[in-house]
Specification:
The strands form three sheets. A six-stranded mixed sheet has the order 3-2-1-4-7-13, sandwiched between helices. It has a five-stranded mixed sheet with strand order 10-9-8-11-12, sandwiched between helices. Strands 5-6 form a two-stranded antiparallel ribbon. The chain is an alpha/beta fold and 390 residues long. Strand 11 (305-310), helix 13 and strand 12 (332-336) form a beta-alpha-beta unit. The chain folds into two domains: 2-150 and 344-383, 2-Layer Sandwich (Nucleotidyltransferase, domain 5), CATH 3.30.420; 154-340, ATPase, nucleotide binding domain (Nucleotidyltransferase, domain 5). The chain is globular, with a radius of gyration of 20 Å. It has helices at 44-54, 61-85, 123-130, 139-144, 153-161, 201-211, 220-224, 229-235, 239-242, 251-254, 256-267, 273-300, 317-327, 347-360, 368-371, and strands at 2-7, 14-24, 30-41, 92-95, 98-109, 112-120, 134-136, 167-173, 176-182, 192-198, 305-310, 332-336, 381-383. It starts with a strand and ends in a 7-residue tail after the last strand. Helix 6 runs antiparallel to helix 12, helix 11 packs across helix 12 (273-300) and helix 12 (273-300) crosses helix 13. Helices cover 41% and strands 24% of the residues. Bound molecules: adenosine-5'-diphosphate and magnesium ion (MG).
């Protein structure tokens, strides 16, 4: 079955579309082949609208509604353009949507206490234009099962990338950094997964603020700067980094306010903007490796571990180098997911194609050990095509 996965993550950098061929194998087994991947960056105005909505700015309901539909249009156009350059018989779409709010722990609102999550992007628009069923809104079912609603990629990691003889850490570095640790020859119950903290989010925020650029391409600015070690050490004391997994994070934890506070701490020691960017980059690397030392290494208990990096952070050479440096005490191999048939930029979109396929076949998509849910549940809502598909 050919499935399109659409991902637009917390970086709000744009939309990734992956066209994949999915074949059922033996029980639990599945073959996923990438047919095409294309990235569609958001325009400046679109990105600003998304960031404003995510950052809790007050906005009229009309604008939230319009943004949800405008995102739907962006997703539909992205799939249409991908199909135009790679014609194939699409049967199903999995659309993650744009997270505008994610609150994984219950809080009181209008005399009731509950957790909630919101991924915007009108799925009906996709179903109407592409004329195939769409699975969307993956996270609520897991939240309602008592989970964090994140991370959801671990099941896809387990199904596609587990290895019988080597332990693997699938490390995604998007806006947030999340990891899936799979011991060699593991069963599904032995998978450990959680968000380690910021990925590119703080780096991007500082690049925007200090250089009016979206990102630190190649990590070149950070490479010129000096890491302010004491700021990294102090930042690592925050409760989030010490909290036991399962745990998840978002813009609520590491958004603009967090970046501003980090910048203030950097400026006490240095006025050079590149030092602040280098420090934010080191914080990402340090928080990832600290999570390995605290929770992942004891869990894997094996010498041969492949750390397989995906997401935009895989293209930040300075970040990769800092991780490599900090990993030295461990006999672990650092690579990217590119060579495994999962290009770093495409991997999450591929995962949501697979999660849509799971839901379509009424199979669970969450991994209770990863999200903290009490049970494995079928994720998402299905919007049918206007007329039955032949
Ligand atoms: N060439 C690059 N050099 C450095 N950083 C990059 C590069 N390409 C992408 N990134 C970083 O990756 C981010 C996007 O990563 P992505 O995996 O799409 O995350 P998300 O899922 O949050 O959208 C960008 O905002 C940027 O910080
Ligand atoms: Mg992205």
């Amino acid at each position: 079955m050919i499935v399109a996965g659409i991902m637009s993550g917390t970086s709000a950098d744009g939309v990734d579309v992956a066209l994949v061929e999915i074949r059922a194998r033996s029980r639990e087994g599945v073959g996923v082949t990438l047919l095409a991947h294309r990235a569609f960056p958001f325009s400046r105005s679109m990105r600003n609208a998304i960031l404003a909505a995510m950052q809790g700015e007050s906005m009229p309901a009309a604008e939230f509604a319009r943004l949800g539909w405008r995102l739907g249009i962006a997703y539909a156009e992205a799939v249409e353009a991908t199909l135009q350059s790679h014609p194939c018989e699409l049967k199903l779409i999995g659309c993650h949507g744009q997270t505008l709010y994610h609150q994984s722990t219950p809080e009181r609102f209008l005399d009731r206490k509950f957790a909630c999550t919101w991924q915007a992007g009108e799925a009906a628009l996709l179903a109407a234009r592409l004329r195939v069923p769409v699975v969307s809104n993956f996270r609520p079912a897991d939240v309602l099962a008592g989970g964090q609603g994140a991370p959801l990629v671990p099941l896809a990691d387990f199904l596609c990338l587990r290895h019988t003889r080597r332990a693997r850490v699938l490390q995604n570095i998007g806006g947030i950094a999340n990891l899936t640790a799979i011991p060699a020859g593991a069963t599904i119950q032995q998978v450990l997964a959680f968000d380690s903290g910021p990925g590119n989010m703080v780096i991007d925020a500082l690049m925007q603020r200090l250089y009016d650029r979206r990102m630190d391409a190649g990590g070149r600015v950070a490479a010129r700067g000096t890491v302010l070690e004491s700021v990294v050490r102090e930042s690592m004391r925050a409760g989030f980094f010490r909290r036991q997994p399962p745990k998840s994070a978002g813009r609520e934890e590491f958004g603009r306010e967090y970046a501003e506070a980090l910048l203030r701490r950097c400026r006490k020691l240095s006025q050079r903007p590149e030092d602040a960017v280098a420090t934010a980059t080191a914080l990402t690397a340090t928080s990832i490796v600290a999570a390995y030392q605290r929770w992942v290494a004891p869990h894997l208990g094996s010498a041969a571990v492949d750390v397989v990096v995906s997401g935009g952070g895989a293209r930040n050479a300075t970040l990769m180098q800092q991780m490599q440096e900090q990993l030295k005490p461990l006999p672990w191999q650092l690579t990217t997911s590119d060579a495994m048939g999962f290009p770093a930029e495409a991997k999450e979109a591929m995962a949501f194609a697979l999660l849509a396929w799971q839901s379509w076949r009424r199979r669970p998509g969450n991994l209770p050990a990863a999200t903290g849910a009490s049970e494995a549940v079928i994720l998402g809502q299905i919007t049918h095509a206007p007329v039955p598909h032949a």
